[in-house]
Amino acid sequence: MSGAPRLSLRIDLSNGARLGPGKAQLLLLIEEHGSIRAAGAAMGMSYRRAWLLADEINRMFKEPSIFTRHGGRSGGGAGLTPFGESLIGACRRMDAESRKALQTDLAWLESMQAAEFVAGGRKSDDDG
Fold this sequence. Notes:
By secondary structure, this protein is mainly alpha-helical. About 50% of the residues lie in helices and about 10% in strands.
């Protein structure tokens, strides 16, 4: 067995928008890299895909989460608005609280895993 069970938190909003680990990670990486392109590349996605997700995140709420600066002498870039920083903080808190609340159940699930089961296929090519 490799590692403990992983918990992913996804919130389905009443307006049809979804906020999950991918969008939260994109926000964190935009904050870290100062660029939508670099954040997307760090996640292994195209600039277009990263830009479309960033645009969606900006339209999901009453306030935008990401600001952009056009290129020029000082270069372009992106960052988080104050709302975007608050959103990341809320995501971190919700993630931590859900892990804390489910810690006992996750440990139980881990203890009940069938060691010989491998999702989506056989354990190894040597199995016959």
